[in-house]
Write a sequence for this structure.
């Protein structure tokens, strides 16, 4: 019988790419998704495969999480590992409605852990974020602290990390926590590149860009992110494994992304900056991110932040038939 993996949020941006890689590795994959951000289109190319199933349900609800996990187990056999990606991934939306992060991130983590315990699942990998560090001037390593996030998004991810750590003492054999940078590429559902291209598709007189354009962060292509996740799970064997994932450079500016989006979609469009050093409440305008621990584990990114942005701009534009 094929090894069976379940991906929460598997119809989303990152989750759907992870589906592709796990199936290519010969594993059976079940997806659990409420389709609030994920889409059926992201996994439509996998429809009809005997080794792939999709279960729709709101995992923030105890009964739903247990139902989905039990159904997936009955259909494809015991679940070897959970990849927990289901969460609110729109930081700005969580500022407007803090309940979004509580329901879609923290409650989903709590109920996922409960359903995993009920099914006897001993391995869990979690998609966390650099936002758990908050706004800091020092180099961000996995041991940085205190951890003081400035967004509900980061706070809910940090609380989820704590729940997972506690679960290792109780019922998980091993957990992997991935702290993501800004992830970009095909099938994106939000983010600066996605927004820029969407606005440019409407032929605006100028491209509106939040902040002053100097916000600078590392960017990683989604295919490289998934490769790093798989490498970590295959090579990190502590009970708790926490890794920053990202490129090995300082990143690129928002202005750089806007200029490349304009060049690809609507050359000559002027940029209208809204001003200020950040795009929204809870935005961390710049940070320095260490990936030395990951490099020491033997994974090396192929693309710089700039190269990832150029590739992602073209992919997102093609996703929109531009």
């Amino acid at each position: 019988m094929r090894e069976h993996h379940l991906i929460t949020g598997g119809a989303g941006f990152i989750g759907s790419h992870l589906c592709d890689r796990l199936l290519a590795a010969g594993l059976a994959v079940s997806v659990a998704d409420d389709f609030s951000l994920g889409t059926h289109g992201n996994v439509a190319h996998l429809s009809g495969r005997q080794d792939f199933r999709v279960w729709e349900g709101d995992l923030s609800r105890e009964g739903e999480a247990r139902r989905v996990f039990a159904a997936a187990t009955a259909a494809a056999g015991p679940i070897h590992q959970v990849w927990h990606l289901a969460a609110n991934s729109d930081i700005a939306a969580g500022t407007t409605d803090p309940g979004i992060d509580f329901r879609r991130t923290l409650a989903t983590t709590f109920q996922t852990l409960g359903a995993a315990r009920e099914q006897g699942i001993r391995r869990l990998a979690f998609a966390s974020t650099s936002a758990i560090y908050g706004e800091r001037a020092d180099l961000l390593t996995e041991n940085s602290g205190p951890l003081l996030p400035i967004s509900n998004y980061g706070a809910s991810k940090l609380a989820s990390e704590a729940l997972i750590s506690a679960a290792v003492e109780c019922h998980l054999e091993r957990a992997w926590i991935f702290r993501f940078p800004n992830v970009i590429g095909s099938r994106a559902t939000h983010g600066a590149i996605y927004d820029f291209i969407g606005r440019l598709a409407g032929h605006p007189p100028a491209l509106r860009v939040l902040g002053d354009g100097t916000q600078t962060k590392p960017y990683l292509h989604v295919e490289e992110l998934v490769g790093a996740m798989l490498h970590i799970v295959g090579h990190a064997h502590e009970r708790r494994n926490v890794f920053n994932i990202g490129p090995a450079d300082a990143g690129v500016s928002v202005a750089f992304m806007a200029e490349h989006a304009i060049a690809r979609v609507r050359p000559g469009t002027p940029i209208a900056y809204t001003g200020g050093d950040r795009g929204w409440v809870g935005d961390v305008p710049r940070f320095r991110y260490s990936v030395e621990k990951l490099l020491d584990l033997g994974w090396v990114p192929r693309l710089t932040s700039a190269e990832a942005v150029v590739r992602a701009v073209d992919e997102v534009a093609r996703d929109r038939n531009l």
